Predict the structure.
Amino acid sequence: MAEAVLRIENLSKNFGGLRVTDDVTLDVMPGELHAVIGPNGAGKTTLINQISGLLAPDAGRIVFGGEDVTGLAVDRRAQRGLARSFQITSILPRFSVLENVALAVQARSGSSFRFFGAAAAEESLNEAARAALTQVGLGERETVPAGELSHGEKRALELAIALAMEPKLLLLDEPMAGTGRDETERLVTALRSLKGRFPMVLVEHDMHAVFALADRISVLIYGKILASGTPAQVRADPQVVTAYLGDEME
Amino acid sequence: MSTSLLIVQTLNGLQLGVLLFLIAAGLTLVFGVMDFINLAHGVQYMLGAYLAVMFYAFTGNFLFALILALGAALLFGLLLEFAVFRHLYDRDHLDQVIATFGIILFLNQGVKILWGASPLSLPMPEIFSGSVVLMPGILYPVWRLVIIGSGLGVALVLYLLVSHTRVGMLVRAGATNAAMVSALGVDIRRLFMIVFGFGTMLAGFAGIMIAPILSVEPGMGDTILILAFVVIVIGGIGSIRGAFIAALLIGLVDTLGRSFMVDIMRLFLAPSPARTVGPAIASMLIYLLMAVVLYVRPAGLFPAKGR
Amino acid sequence: MADAALSTSAPRRSLLAGNALPVAIFLIFALVPLFATFRAEAYVLSLVTRVMIFAIAALALDLLIGYGALVSFGHAAFMGLGAYAVGILSSHGIQDALISLPVALGVSALFALLTGIVCLRTKGVYFIMITLAFGQMAYFTASSLAPYGGDDGLTIRVRSTLAGFPIFSGDRSLYYICLICLLGAYLLCRALVGSRFGRVYRGARENPLRVSTIGFEVYRYQLVAYVIAGALGGLSGFLLGNATDFVSPAYMSWQRSGELLIMVIFGGIGTLNGAIVGAAAFLLVEEWLSGITEHWKVIFGPLLVLVAVFAPGGLLGLAARLRRMIRG
């Protein structure tokens, strides 16, 4: 049996008296797109934050690529191939679109403690950056300052940055939040083309996207995993339907 | 090292602490609520002292001079707010630094032009001008006790205002999240003005009270400004309680440190190096303290915005 | 999370079309000694030497403030350390720059490393305050150095020499040494900012969270930048000691650190050119005004206020806006 790329074991996190992550166990297999859905306030972003290292769990383990990374800092996990996009767009606004992505490429291409030699002139970095931008449909916008992009374009840029990191696992925190229909479609297409290349954890509210992309779905309610399985299984699960999907699927 | 010296210096430390609190309170509120770095707070302290000297020359009465000076300091502070600070609330901290630095230069020179560079003095009220016997062998100036008393009184009033009045609640809310307070429909400009005016008066009051003990001269606000910033950083920005505790802490550490550091050094070193190293370490003590506090709590002891 | 983006930095691309401005600046500096032969040579040379020396320190500070959002209020400490290195060694008979310059750089870099380790754990105004604290510690330590003058300072009786040659002793030769050092510092900073290192460092100013989730340990990059800036400050101090034949704790005062900040802000942060322009403007205006009245600060103060209120982005930002207005 294949080894899980990511395994979360009995993860728990409290904020004061509130149990935001309640004994969560889930895994992500190679090549799969594992969606995490649930109502607002269910603790989805908190879960992502713990996986990527921004938040320390109170209990439990996070095993990535066979290695226990629970105590590892954010940048260390990123160096091991854990990439993420943010729910609230997090890019470098005064850098150009190209340079945003080139920075991510740079992280995987040798030492950045080089003090001479213009980074912007390194064609190998630029090439790889352009490839990632083309994948998400931003190829034409590379010289634009990232802060001037439309909201949907920024979400695409987030994805491009994550891609440029050559991730072993990609965490996507509501990539389609606030995007219009066209841009949502573009992102879904982009994600579909990436399927199989590397495993992904997708946190999303957009049910069409989730059911179009996910291999497995876990439902998170009040910090607890209510159900986990294939889209068909989850859709049919009566608990899930009453607790969450009922209204969403109308 | 004698007990009486220890007691006297402890009281002196409390007095310095109380003084620092008066200045730091206004500073931490302005910073916490309005996110405004006011380097000119020190010159407002100095201005209070100069105005008191001036009004004393007119009236010959300390109390009148105090009241008039406080009023004038408040007016001047509001004028400054209206003319300069108001334009800088939304700006970067660096712009605020340069503007308030410019005001320091202007006012330090200004008082030199108006009153000359020589130190001036302000006599304290007759009834408070003596010393009192606290314990056998300990004679302590009454005026310093007055400073401690009035400072603690102001602290109490501030505490009551901030925790039991509507304005106080708004100030506390503003220190935690000014944008939210504004979004709730509160006239944030007026709140700013109140906070600022109050802070100015506190600084001026401190200057007036200390004037009889220290000499009133240009630049007297500069050193105290730095100390006040150290206080609010250790205490946590936006927190009056933090400012109070930190101010007393710093007042005591600095005063006792300066008095006894040479003796403490003598425990480890020979007399001669102790006499050199002692004062140096004493001067640095509060900065070392701040460095340690920030290392352990990078946002101070009681930050208003939470940790 | 991320410090508030420094919206006051001038739009870099429009003014630095090509390198017209820095070329002009350095050309002017190179030609000053030629014009100075006609009037008041020693005065002009010493004034512009001072400008260049402070420009080096301002460049280093702009590297921190403008490109890293690290507002250091203790930068003067590095200048003081460099100057004291010269002074203390000279008082013991060691004048060779081959010794005193590495010492000056080394001491400043070490101080930057040790203090940076602590300071960089903080952000925003706390960072400002803790850099101030360390600056004050340096100041008070210097004040207590009785054998080296304490509060009164130390006269440097013999300037540095280079392998025996007294090249720091003549006005002109010192001038050109400072010019070369300034050019070197400028080119170094320019290279740094555009390098791989600079990209990570600048990215950390924009969005430190983002940069760390890409896989960079922001703290380390900021520490390296802080040490480099400290060393440059030490270089500036080394030259200052030689230029003034004097060093005192006042070289490290918080007022001095404040003045350095003003110089950088005055010129326009985040441009490097602004640091040089700002240092020049500050010192020249100071010199000019103090010639008019002893109470020049009463004019200079409000000038700073006006700059703060009406010219965010400093002189360079103002110039950029004027150009845009002229072009229509």
